[in-house]
Structure formats: structure tokens, C-alpha cells
Design a protein that fits this description.
By secondary structure, the protein is an alpha/beta fold. Helix content is 35%, strand content 24%. The chain contains six helices and six strands; from the N terminus they run αβαββαβαβαβα. It has a six-stranded mixed beta sheet with strand order 2-3-1-4-5-6, sandwiched between helices. Helix 4 links the parallel strand 4 and strand 5 (118-124). The mean pLDDT is 88. Bound molecules: guanosine-5'-diphosphate and magnesium ion. Guanosine-5'-diphosphate binds next to helix 2. Belongs to the small GTPase superfamily. Rab family. It comes from Betta splendens (Siamese fighting fish). GO terms for molecular function: GTP binding; GTPase activity.
């Protein structure tokens, strides 16, 4: 079994998109190292890697974080190029980031071949229940209208983060496997 896994390894490029401050870098850090830092983390390199084992394949995730270009809405097409998965992140406590997620989606669709990329809508900061501005039903509705997958997460507590990565791994494998 171990031998088969070694033979069947895929590289998976995953990109994080969304407004500044929604928690992209924090999620990347959770995925890559299962850590949280309260000071805004900079990944400091092109991407973090994380290996995920499924029953008959190993996926080596390259998790790409922006270097803050999203502030100027100037994420380069090179960032999306060849991506197998994209996380469209918003902050459940800031409605404008949810509106913006819909613009990011258009942008992403312009630059990717339909069916070749797994797109996941992610409502982050699920721990901020008191400050919630986007009901979970709204996230679900947007996802089903635009045929995306959907999860709410908390990079702070780690809630749903590993399930999300596993979910993405399964969908990506369905696409490329
Ligand atoms: P980015 O600009 O999208 O990369 O966002 P960052 O990862 O830099 O996070 C922006 C701020 O939100 C930082 O102060 C983080 O500590 C905080 N943050 C990130 N994720 C969460 C979360 O799940 N819950 C809470 N309460 N704060 C978070
Ligand atoms: Mg960041």
C-alpha cells in the first residue's frame, strides 16, 4: 500500500483569494503548519506545502497565498495559472467581503477553464458569532447558485480547517485522478 502511494503522487496547486483581512494567510498557515498567529502572518515564500493521503493516492498541496496585492485588486493571472483548487474567502463579520467574493469569482472564472478547477467558497472567522453579518444560509445560497462548494471555518480555533482540506483533496482527485 505504501509503495502504491509513492507511485501515485500528484502535485496540487491551491490558491487563496479574497479581500484583505479575511484570513487568507491565517488559513494558509493552518493548512500548512496547523498554527495560528495573532499578528498578521506573512507566509514569506511562494507557497506552503502540505501532504494529504487519500486511500489510493497522495496529494502534495502547494498552498499559494497572495502577498497583499488584493488590496489593490491587482492579483496577477500568473497567480491563478495552473491552479487545481481555489479558495474564495470572505469574513462572516464583514458583509463587504462577501460582496467582494462574488467579484473575485468572476475574475477567477475569466482566468480558468470551467471544470478544471475546484472552487470552494469559505466563510472564515466563524468564531465571531456575535459580530456575524453574513448568515450561513446566504453563503450556502451563493455557493449553490454559482455551483461552488461551501464551508465556514475559523483559522483562529482551527474549526473545520482540516475537514475543508480533506474535502478539497477528494474533489481535486475526482477532477485529476
Ligand atoms: P489576509 O489579509 O486575508 O491574509 O488575512 P490575515 O490572515 O492576515 O488575517 C487578518 C486578521 O484577521 C488578523 O488579525 C488575523 O489574526 C485575524 N483572523 C484570521 N482568521 C481569523 C479567524 O478565523 N477568527 C478571528 N477571530 N480572527 C481571524
Ligand atoms: Mg495575507
Amino acid at each position: 500500500d505504501k509503495l502504491r502511494r509513492m507511485v501515485r503522487t500528484f502535485r496540487v496547486k491551491m490558491v487563496l483569494l479574497g479581500s484583505s483581512g479575511v484570513g487568507k494567510s491565517s488559513l494558509a498557515l493552518r493548512f500548512g503548519k496547523d498554527e495560528f498567529r495573532s499578528a498578521s502572518p506573512t507566509v514569506g515564500c511562494a507557497f506552503l506545502t502540505r501532504v494529504v493521503h487519500l486511500s489510493d493516492v497522495t496529494l502534495r498541496f502547494e498552498i499559494w497565498d497572495t502577498a497583499g496585492q488584493e488590496k489593490y485588486h491587482s492579483v496577477t493571472p500568473l497567480y491563478y495559472r495552473g491552479a487545481h483548487a481555489a479558495l474564495l474567502v470572505y469574513d462572516i463579520s464583514r458583509r463587504e467581503t462577501f460582496i467582494r467574493a462574488q467579484l473575485w469569482l468572476k475574475e477567477l472564472k475569466k482566468h480558468s477553464i470551467p471544470g478544471s478547477i475546484v472552487i470552494w467558497l469559505v466563510g472564515n472567522k466563524g468564531d465571531l458569532a456575535e459580530a456575524r453579518q453574513v448568515p450561513v444560509e446566504e453563503g450556502q445560497a451563493l455557493a449553490s447558485d454559482t455551483e461552488l462548494f461551501f464551508t465556514e471555518t475559523s483559522a483562529l480555533s482551527g474549526d473545520q480547517v482540516s475537514d475543508l482540506l480533506l474535502g478539497i483533496a477528494h474533489r481535486v482527485y475526482e477532477c485529476i485522478g
